[in-house]
Amino acid sequence: MEKAFHHEVDVLVAGGGIAGTLAALAFCHAGFSTSLLDDGPPGIPGDEYRQRVSSFNLASEQALRKLGVWPLIARHRISPIERIEVRDNASSPLVFDAATVGLPHLAHILENDLVSGATREVLESNPMFQQVGAGRATDIERNPDGLIVVAADGSRIRCQLLIGADGADSMVRRFAGIGRDTFDYRQRAIVTRVFLNGAHHRIARQRFLPTGPLAFLPLADNSCSIVWSMEEGMAGEILSLDDGPFCERLERAFDIEPGYIHGVEPRTTFPLRRTHATRYTADRMALIGDACHTVHPLAGLGANQGIADAMALVDTVDQARARGQRFWHDRVLARYQRSRRPQNSIILATMDLFHLGFANDLRWLPEIRDAVFSLVDHAPVIKRFFITQATGRMP
Ligand SMILES: Cc1cc2nc3c(=O)[nH]c(=O)nc-3n(C[C@H](O)[C@H](O)[C@H](O)COP(=O)(O)OP(=O)(O)OC[C@H]3O[C@@H](n4cnc5c(N)ncnc54)[C@H](O)[C@@H]3O)c2cc1C
pTM here? Predict the structure, then answer.
């Protein structure tokens, strides 16, 4: 006998990270009754910086503005990037400057919880949002007229469309029977925040070392977030260092004068894997964000891809409904996959090329890299291409 359900919505989003909260808000904006399941909102950060920060490009800023979230974000700690400098061990830096392409900034460094917390606040005040059920999605059942999702508190919610925004280990993806291609970079990213004896001038700096990329990302109070990727054995060694030796090692790696870093917060690490779902959709289900793909953080694109997925999915589904089509139908969802998969595939492949081209000590590579850096720096068309990728839109 079919089990009853307690609530009914058009769209249910599993996962309240950046991609999930934004998708839920965009669905509400488009007039779909929407609910969201997760452990509970992290909330907008207070005085203490949260360690997980990301670079949000102009396309993501535009999406957050369109949904009315940006003004709330802008009232908190935001850190614009006006210039990006990329270098390897040998060559002079490759520079991307906002001013030279007529932009006030290229991106912002924001705490992940600020973006998801602010989006959640705006979401909760939207009349199309229904908070039904509490905790994560624990089970999914098929029903003749939709899917029934069981929440951790036992609530049963029937939806027409289920969005899997539940991160890299997505339960929705597994339930849908969607496989994924995986490549283990055998690297870890060490993440921390450092305090400098000097101004960062809103410049994001990245250095490609033979051991992996190292980025200094400017934060609001003249500190920097560090993302230092390296192979797993080396990460274990670096993580065992106390604050002083850690800072010295970091200064040496980044080739900055001893003593320039005068403080560091505790370190955390993340394993680095590229994953890509073999399909983005299945019967009444669609994947977005890390549930669909994960990418090396060297270009700071993962969260931006998740936001772009969410916007594209809502747009596709909304257009279908406006044409009188069943918005959850396979043919509609296939359009979403067609709109996002090529772009995501390009990003994943480009990150692999960067990883292979830089995280390696072959003798002839520096000369080739030098030539490529010089070519990109002096060819406006190619530079424009890179700026388009970094900002997520044409300048
Ligand atoms: C070191 C590092 C640096 C990075 N830097 C950048 C950067 O500069 N720029 C950038 O764009 N990206 C960056 N990224 C990538 C970015 O952090 C991620 O792509 C992004 O946070 C993923 O967001 P998401 O919402 O898809 O998934 P997640 O943040 O993983 O959120 C998934 C949510 O789903 C919830 N969940 C899990 N299971 C369930 C369930 N069964 N039911 C309901 N909810 C569930 C979880 O609680 C979580 O809240 C970086 C990543 C790393 C590791």
Answer: 0.93
